[in-house]
Amino acid sequence: GIGSNTSMNMNSDHQPQANNSDVNAMGQQFLSSAGIDTKSLFRKARGLQAQTQTRSQPFSSQGNGNINANPNNVNTSSYSNANSIKLHANLYTSIEEMRAATISNILLNQRNKTNQIVQNKIKDRLQAKSKMTQSKSSYLGSVIPGTGRRVLPFPASEVPLMDMNHDLIRSHLNSRIGASATGITLDGLEKIARENGNMAYSYHNAISLLQMLRSQESEPNANQSPHGKTISCVKFLAQQFKNYIIQQVKNNPMSSSSSSPNASGIDVGAGGLLGYIYKFVELEMGRSVTHQGQTEVLWKILYYSLRCGDLDCVRQVIASSQGQIDPIIIQYVEEMCKISSTGAGTGVEILEKIPDGLINAMAELYRRVESRRQNQSSDYELVALGMMSFTPMDGSSTSVSTTIEDYLFLGLWNAIRVRSDDECVDKVFSLAENVKHWGPEYFEDGNGDSDGWSYAMPLLLCQQTKSALSHLAGKSGVGLCLAVQLSLAIRGTGITLEDLTKTTENSSDESGEEEFLAALIIAFTKNLQTIAPEGALDYLVHVPGKIETGIESKAGKYLSKNAESQICRLLLDTKAFTILGGRIAADGSRLASGALDEHFGKGAVSGILALTADQSIREGRVADAAELLSLAGKYSDLLSVLNRQLASLLVTNKTEERVFWRNAAERFYSTYLRQGQTHVVQVLEVERNLSLGENFQMLLNLLSFFDRCSEGNWVGAWDLVDNLGILPNDERDVASKVDKFNSLSLSIQNEFHHIVSKAMEALSEQHGQLKRSLGVIHQGGMGSETTNQRMFDLRNRARLLVTFAGLISLSDTEVKAKILRLEARMI
To answer: What predicted TM-score, i.e. pTM, was given to this entire model?
Structure first.
C-alpha cells in the first residue's frame, strides 16, 4: 500500500493504474536508453501496417488514458499523429517482447553496477553519518579504535600502561568493587559509570547492553541462546535510538512544545513518544513538509516507531492513517495488538509471534513496493514493510540506514525470525565478519578513539565478546581496566566470553575463556600492584583456572591454583607484607588487618603466606620468607629457617649478613621466647617442637662463642661452650654427649666440626698462656701448683675432645688433623 499522494494507487482488483502520457513517456525513455530510434521504428511500423490486408481489432481508447483489464489495449496516440493507423498485432507483440527484454537488461545491468559500488558508498556514508550522530548527542554514544584490520589476541607484545590518575580507573579502585562480597557485578559497574557522567557514556552503554543480555526473570534461559541475545541487542539499539530522539527534540530550540494540526492525519496531541517522533521528523524534514501531509512523512514516522521498538506508536500511526494504508497492514496491526494483550513479550518479541499467513502477506506487499521503487523517496516505506514482514534487507543500500547503528539494527533484525537457531547464528556471524573485515580504523572517529569503544561496541552487538574485550584491553590503559571489569561481570552472569562462531564451529572452549580472562587480570594487576597492591589483590582472587586449591574465599568460591600462584607473586614482588598480610601482635599472634583478610579466613591467609614463604626460600629470599612465616604463624617453620641461617653463619666472612641475622634472631628471642608463655611458645608446645627453640638458643650462644674466639677471649669462649653441655666433661660423659650430639638439629650437626675445632683451639690457647705464665710464676715463687693443675685439666679435656670427635664421625679431615696437632702442642 502507498499513499494517495503518489502518482499510482490500488483499485479494487489491486491492478496498477497509470496516466497514459506517463506510460508512453516511460516506454520511450526505456527504448531510447536501449539505443532504439523510436521515430524510425514507428515509421517502419506504419509502413508495414499500410501494406497489410488484414486488420486487427481496433484498440479501445480510454478517456482517462488508463490501462484497462487487457494489457494489450494500449493507446498509441502519443507515438504518432496518425491516430487512425493501428499497429499490426504481431508487430506489436514483437515490440512488446523487445521492450520487455530491453527493460530487463537495463535493470540487470543497473543492479550489477549498483552491487559493485555499494560497498564503497556504504563505508563512506555510514562513517560520515555515524560521526554526525555521535556529535549530536552523548545519549546514543559510540555504538559501534584501533590499528590494523583485525583484532589481535590479548595480551599483545606490550601491555598498555595505565594512568592511575584517570577518573575511571580511580573510581574502580576507590570503590574496592573487586573486594565486595558479591564480586564484580554489572549493577555495581553501572553505578560507577553513572557517577563519572559523560566521560563514561560509552562504558555505560556497554554495561546497559550486557544487562539486557543476561537472563531475564520471566525466561531464565532465553537470553543465553544466540537468538535471545540477538533480540536483546535489537532492543538495546531501539532504546538507544528512542533516547536519542527524545534528547534531540528537547535540546532543539526549533522544536515546538505544543502540538499543532498536521496534514498527515496522525494524532500527536496526546504527546508521549509519538509526539517526540513527529517533532523529530519535523526537525529533519521541515514543518512545511510535514504539515503538507506527504506520504513520506507517514512512513518515516512508522519506521521510527519500529526503530524505537514501540508498538503502541505503531498502532497509533496505523489507526490515524487507515485511509492511506493497505488493509493487510491494518490486519497485521490488529493481530499485533491481540498478541500484545496476552503479555507475550514486548517489541520485536510480539512481532515474531505473528502468524505466518500475515507475515507472508506483508512480505508480498513488500515485494510489490520494492518492484516499483524508483528513487529514495520510498525507502522508509520499504524498510518499514520489510521489518514488519521480517524480509531480509540490505540496510546499507537505502537512505534509511544513515548511521552504523542503523546498519547493525537492520542486520540483527534480519536474524530474528528464522527457521532455526543455526540460521540465526549464521546471520549474526556474517554481520560480525563484515565488522571485522572493515577493521578498527573504519570505526574510529575523526580525532581518534583512545579507549577503543567505537569498534568494541559493534563487536559486542554481534556477540563477538572476546574480540571486543581484546580490542579494548590492547587499546589503552583505561581500556584494559574496563575490559577486566566487564570480563569479570560478564562471567558472573553466565554469559560466555568466547566469540559467536558459525554453527559448525560453535563449541564452547572453557579453557580458552579462562586463559583469556587470566591474561587480562594479570596484565591489569601488573600495572596496579606497585601503587595499590591491595587493589591488585581484589582482582587476582578472581583469576580462573582448571585446578582448585581447596582455599575457600569469604564469598564461597574456591581459589584456583593459578590465582594462588599470582597472589604469591604479588606478595613477593611488592613486599607489601603488612598491607596484604596484616601485623603481628606483641605476643606473636597475627592481627587480621591485611587485605587478604578481606577475602579469606585466618587459616586460608596463613596458608597463602606460608606458601609464599616457601616460594621465597626457593628463590633464595630467606629474609622475606622469615617475615612471611612469622605473619603466617608458622613458628616451627620460622625457627627451622632461622636455625639453618644462624648455623650457616657461625663461621663466615659475610660479616654484614651475619650481623643482620644475629640481630634479627636476638630481637625475635627477646620478644617472643624470653618472655615466658607467649603465643609463640604455645604454638611450639602444641606442635611439640620446643626442641627447635632450644636449638635456636644454642645457636645464639654459639654465635657468641665464635665471636669471643675471634676477639681472643679464649677463657670466655671455652666457659660459654662448656656451659652449653654439648662437649664431654669426663670419660663417663662421652657416651651421653654423643647422644646429645645426635639429638641436635641437622643444621648444628653440619657445623659441629667448626665447634670442635674452635673448642680445641680455645683449650690450646689457654694451655699456652698458662705455660708461658708458669715461667713468670717460678720467678716469683708463687702459684705453680695451681697452674699445673689447670694445665692438666685442659690437657685432659683436649684428650676427651679428640675421643669425642672420633665417635661423632666428623666429616672434615682437616679439622681432625688440626685438633690432633693442637692436642700434641699441649703435651
So the answer is: 0.71
